[in-house]
Amino acid sequence: MDRIIAHVPDLGGRVFDMATKGVDHPYATLGPSYWVDDSTECIDARETTLQVDLWHDSSSKGELEDLVDDVTAALKGWADTVSLTMHPVEISLVQIMDDPDGVSVHGVIQIEAMVEADGNP
Q1: Phi and psi dihedrals of 103, rounded to 5?
Q2: What H or E segment, with its residue span, contains residue 29?
Q3: How far apart are CA 94 and CA 72, in angstroms?
Q4: 43 vs 17, which has greater pLDDT?
Q5: What's the whole-number mean pLDDT along residues 35-59?
Q6: Residue 109: which residues within 8 A CB-CB, separation 6 or more?
Q7: In this model, does residue 120 exceed pLDDT 60?
Q8: Helix or strand run (H / E) with residue 109
């Protein structure tokens, strides 16, 4: 979240775990995530997948596409090596769609990264 806030100023800091009703467009939320074990004999690791959702009003599909490009650029190849032992983020899916509510357009960015255990018991 901090990476997106710092590198995508057009979101105005509106990046949430979960948005509350009435939040102004555009904004981003963290969507579904999952991980699979990617350990080897000497390294405990997991391949983590996270979805980042972007939302804008339905009259701004072009602006949403620009925001999706900006978030993708901010995350692609990034690794938080201060807090974690992780490999650079890879982008595995990007999608723009009309939302069924008829009020919003929805962008999806799916990212993947291998994260290693820190070695502490």
Answers
A1: -110, -25
A2: strand 27-37
A3: 8
A4: 17
A5: 90
A6: 51, 52, 54, 68, 71, 72, 75, 91, 93, 94
A7: no
A8: strand 104-116
